[in-house]
Amino acid sequence: MGNNSSTQLSPVSVWALAAGGMAGGGIYTVLGVVIAVSAQWSWLAFVVTGIVALCSAYSYVFLTNKFHEEGGAFIFLEKVNDKKMAGNLSWLLILGYVLTISVYAFAFGHYVSYAFHGNPLLTRILAAGVVTVLILLNLAGVGKLTRVEIVIVSINLLVLVALGAYGVSQWDPVQLVAGIEPRPAWSVFFGGAAIFMGYEGFQLLTYEYDKIKNPKKTFMPVMLSAVIFVILAYVLVALGATMLGGAVSMISFKQIALSVASKSAFGLPGLIVMTIAAAFATAAAINSTLFSTANLSKRIASQKELPAWFNHTNGNGIPDRSIVLLGTLAGTLAVIGSLSSLVEAASLVFLFTFGVVNYIAFRESNHRKWIPATGMVVAALVMLSLVFRLAISKPIALSGIVLLIVLIVLGRPLLLKSNNKQEK
User: Fold this and answer.
1) Which of 111, 147, 230, 414 suits 13 as a labelling partner, its CA being 20 to 30 A distant?
2) Distant-in-sequence, close-in-space partners of 221: CB < 8 Å, separation ≥ 6
3) Contact at 8 Å (CB) between 243 and 172?
4) Which keywords does this chain's UniProt record carry (predicted)?
């Protein structure tokens, strides 16, 4: 496969990167959002959406092993001869990754600014600044630092689990609804739908398939165990952090919910540790997502499903135009967008994408079809819940998302046709 053993990813590295891809930025940004919707049922919302993530992880690995090629959903659709859908979904997926990067940058700005008693201006400068720095690092060819990323992920997971475990040890269920109205049990679907992007990230490893040691044997158990661990960690943090900070505080300060919980429990030292963990975790998540998305864009452009402009690389072999454009878009959204809107838009994109991947796996598999079938059904329920919620609470935001999808479906062929004419 063109990789020597020293550059290949061991099972431990794959596990850490998969778990970190999800928890790296996810829990820092979505906890306050899900508590606002599901309150005392937030932990169950993470379980419901975790089922979609687990089934989707199975489907991603099954299809990647079957086709023996990196590239994720785009390649899966091409392999089953649905080139038009592959193009549409690839554009939608890139949009989802841009939204995800913007959420991580948003979180970075708020967590660091809060620690320094910063104002909204400082928050925006930090959000734009971290994206700018990571764009420059990627252009210089030092964007993908796997070993550094694994260390950051390991410390981040340790901090999150420790906070959750300490909070649960102070068991006080009253805190789950402190200062707010309890929510009905069915709110788990709305809460889970709103924060599904918290599980986005594991599939980035399918873009690194050629670098994984013995993927046929190790990829499936490693990926599934990483997703299960993150589900359990999210449940632990959802319960523990809320018991430490109280529901009303977690909602009022949803942009920095984990800092609020850490400060309530451990004072200034807790705030410092959580700020450092959040800063490094979100920065690493921005970096890996930007790197992978730019390379995915280059791959799609080479298949003529994106304009050839995206296929350009600099002297370091980096898809420079993609890095700059995608990073700039994400940084701009982080500065002007609201947390809930960005999270929900990204969640909608990934719910649809994972639903499609589960459908392909269902069609292509001869056994264990119940796994992708479960992923499809639960993803559809959660996605419909999100659309219903957005239609009621944020009709303008939903209209914007629908308009973007229509533009992609109708405008993509015209743009590609015009681009191909110019190349000739």
Assistant:
1) 111
2) none
3) yes
4) Cell membrane, Membrane, Transmembrane, Transmembrane helix
**Alpha-carbon span 367 to 362, nearest angstrom:** 9
List, in order, residues 6 or more apart from 325 with CB less than 8 Å away.
Answer: none
- What are the φ/ψ torsions at residue 307 (nearest 5 degrees)? -55, 145
- Grouping H, G, I as helix, E, B as strand and the rest as coil, residue 366 is coil
**Tokens encoding 116:** 């320094």
Separation CA 200–CA 183 (nearest Å): 26
Query: What are the beta bridge partners of residue 212?
Result: 9
State the burial class of residue 286 (Cβ atoms within 10 Å of its Cβ: 0-12, 13-18, 19+). buried
SS3 annotation, 8-42: CECHHHHHHHHHHHHHCCHHHHHHHHHHHHHHHHH
What is the rounded radius of gyration, in angstroms, for the C-alpha atoms of the chain? 20
Q: What is the pTM of this model?
A: 0.89
Residue 220 has which token pair? 């499936």
Is pLDDT of 4 > 50? no
Q: What is the pLDDT of residues 117-171, one digit of tens each?
A: 888 899 999 999 999 999 998 888 776 667 788 888 888 899 999 999 999 999 9
- The first and second tokens of residue 96, run together, are 């989802």
In one-letter notation, the amino acid at residue 324 is V
pLDDT in tens, 262-295: 998 899 999 999 999 999 989 988 888 898 899 8
d(CA 226, CA 212): 15
The CATH class of the 15-416 domain is: mainly alpha
Cα 369 from chain centroid? 26
Q: What angle do CA 282, 151, 4 make, to 5 degrees?
A: 110
Express each pLDDT in 180-204 by its tens digit: 999 999 999 988 888 888 898 888 8
